[in-house]
Write a structure and sequence with these properties.
Largest sheet: 3 strands, antiparallel
Number of helices: 10
Shape: globular
Strand order of the largest sheet: 1-2-5
Structural class: mainly alpha
Order of helices and strands: HHHEEEEEHHHHHHH
Strand content: 5-15%
Distance between the termini: 61 Å
């Protein structure tokens, strides 16, 4: 999605599907995989440090390690932290009213368990896209949107790798390297020493030109 399309998606989600707005907002602002988002717990969210620790994911109904096999810290935007704080406060109020503990999961179903990723992907996501009037895209494309917008804003591929949790920088380069604007030209330009005088080349004299012609 473009930045404008993403803004429309999030606005539609907030107005028409408010329950799902924090979930979609997190996916769009962090590039987390769907299973990583459904497995996110409050204990892994640091509001003050503005990051979330991704150390597990849901896969086929089971908790597993992230796809890369590595734990990572994902930066949270200021607005995303505000959205998550509000969600946490609402959960605390609901828990207090019901006499239950605050759920461990950040995003829950109506039974206080974790969100079912497959159910969201197949039932809720198409409705959100339809209401926003957007073309059909995969929920995983929010991850690609996050990466492409970061690169468009001038962030390095190394940062994108860390945010997305790629196993190696090569994966990031192979997937998103083509989005770096003028990356190769900038790289070779930096090889020129700024203090190096401009080269001048003598023009051939008439005799030199005649000699060249004769040869």
């Amino acid at each position: 999605l473009t930045a404008a399309e993403l803004a429309l998606l999030l606005e539609t989600c907030l107005e028409r599907f408010p329950r799902w707005h924090p979930f979609v907002f997190l996916l769009a602002r962090t590039g987390m995989r769907l299973g990583e988002a459904t497995a996110l717990e409050w204990s892994a969210v640091d509001f003050n440090g503005r990051f979330a620790t991704v150390h597990q994911a849901h896969s086929r109904g089971q908790l597993t390690s992230p796809k890369s096999g590595k734990t990572r810290q994902v930066d949270l935007s200021q607005r995303l932290v505000e959205v998550l704080r509000t969600l946490h406060l609402e959960q605390r109020k609901a828990a207090l009213a019901s006499g239950q503990a605050v759920p461990a999961w950040v995003f829950t179903n109506r039974n206080r368990g974790p969100v079912d990723a497959d159910n969201f992907r197949s039932r809720t996501w198409p409705k959100v896209l339809a209401k926003a009037g957007l073309r059909k895209i995969r929920i995983h494309d929010l991850r690609h949107t996050h990466a492409s917008l970061l690169i468009g804003n001038g962030e390095s591929l190394a940062y994108v790798r860390d945010q997305l949790g790629h196993h190696s920088i090569q994966i990031t380069v192979d997937t998103y390297g083509h989005l770096v604007p003028g990356g190769n030209r900038a790289a070779v330009d930096r090889l020129d020493e700024p203090t190096q005088p401009s080269a001048t080349y003598p023009q051939p004299t008439d005799s030199a030109a005649d000699e060249h012609t004769a040869n």
